[in-house]
Amino acid sequence: MNLIFVDYENVSIKGLNGIENLGDDSIVYLFYSENTAHLPMTTVATLNSSKAEMRCILTKVGKNALDFILASVLGFVIKERFQEDTFYIVSKDKGFDVLVDYWKGNKVTVKAITSLSQIPVKKKTTKSTQTQSDADKLKQSLTSKVGTLLKGETKDLKAHVVDIIIKCKSKKAVQNSIKQIEKDKTKANNIYTKLTKLIADKK
Predict the structure, then answer these.
(1) CA-CA distance, 53 to 29, in Å (whole number)?
(2) 40-97 confidence digits (pLDDT tens)
(3) Residue 15 CA to chain centroid, in angstroms?
(4) From the centroid of its chain, how far is CA 125?
(5) Mean pLDDT of 166-191
(6) Predicted confidence (pLDDT) at residue 133 exceeds the cutoff of 80
(7) Which of 67, 21, 29 is closest to 46 using CA atoms?
(8) Is 74 exposed, middle or buried (0-12, 13-18, 19+ CB in 10 A)?
(9) Is the pTM of this model over 0.70?
(10) Both 82 and 138 in a single domain?
(11) Beta-ladder partners of 88
(12) 82 lies in the same domain as 135
């Protein structure tokens, strides 16, 4: 999860560049004051289209007021979150480097950047899609083979058997699982026997 703290008073609209690339694994805390309370409609549209969760925090006008509040909220959120989260401070103010060093010493990843575009975007690879596709192909193939081997059995039983073959890593596990769905021991053993060649690659 990315937790992002934007010093909008400091970076203005340019600091929000790249927000459209953030996914639903990001939460953006946008800190602004009355001095920067007005956003162009194009920016508003971009914010609304982002998959990231937006949390806008209005601060009082004053010297370093926004910085102090941002630092306070950052500390509070870090306390509430898991340490494997990554925290970003979006600001050109080098004063935040002290916070970065402090949290680094406490084994919390806090990074100072000047734009959301600097946050690494998780590339959408076809691996998960390919894996899902392979899983679908495997299930489809097993469904056909089990249907032939267990001709005459109900669709529900065949479907259960397919799931068992996919989930179980050993022949013994397959056999035991079949006995759980088919209480007739003789019939369960017959079903398992018909499947022996199909599960030959299991331990």
Answers:
(1) 9
(2) 777 777 788 788 999 999 998 888 899 999 999 999 999 887 667 899 999 999 999 9
(3) 24
(4) 14
(5) 88
(6) no
(7) 21
(8) buried
(9) no
(10) no
(11) 4, 111
(12) no
Structural domain count, the chain: 2
For tokens 């299930």, the residue is: 139
Predicted pLDDT at 27: 92
Average pLDDT over the chain, rounded to an integer: 87
- 26-32 sheet: strands from edge to edge: 53-58, 26-32, 2-7, 86-90, 109-113
Q: For residue 41, what are the domain limits?
A: 2-118
Q: Two tokens at 118?
A: 């600097």
**172 vs 127: CA distance, rounded Å:** 31
pLDDT reading at 127 higher than 60: no
At residue 163, the pLDDT reads 87
